[in-house]
Amino acid sequence: MTGTTSERLPHVLDDKMCFALYAASRAVTALYRPLLDEMGLTYPQFLVLLVLGDGPEEGVAVKELGAALHLDYGTMTPLLKRLEANGLVRRQRRTDDERTVQITMTEKGAGLRERSDGIFASAGDAMALEPEEFARTLATLRRLTTNVTAYANRRD
């Protein structure tokens, strides 16, 4: 028999959206990983700094941050504790509502956030999409996320 194993295997995954999304996510994450490793950040930590960097100066409530990142409270708490231990964010209870924990970025966190801007250029170059194709793909992915999330919420 000739050809590589992958050439001989059935291409059952070729037309599966779930696999295409999984493979693309892994490829993009692998692209980001060495760039983030240089800064001592994981991808979720990087996302937190992005949201805080573009958020209001008074910070963002943990609940709002979790919603923006599509992460639950149980995932957010250890993530934020690690960022705080590294001096990148500050967690404080709001004075007007002690139940709400507000997250603000420290100067050290802001410095890393600024350094991260080059990551987007690197990722964009690697994706090699024309601007219109990039915009369409992003819009489709956002719509897909909204639709699937709404469907899952109806089932719960």
TrEMBL record:
Keywords for this protein: Cytoplasm, DNA-binding, Transcription, Transcription regulation
A GO biological process held by the record: response to stress
InterPro entries cross-referenced by the UniProt entry: HTH_MarR-typ, MarR/SlyA-like, Transc_reg_Sar_Rot_HTH, WH-like_DNA-bd_sf, WH_DNA-bd_sf
Transmembrane segments: none
Entry keyword annotation includes Transcription: yes
One cellular component (GO) term of this entry: cytoplasm
Domain of life: Bacteria
Protein name (database record): MarR family transcriptional regulator
Lineage of origin: Bacteria, Bacillati, Actinomycetota, Actinomycetes, Streptosporangiales
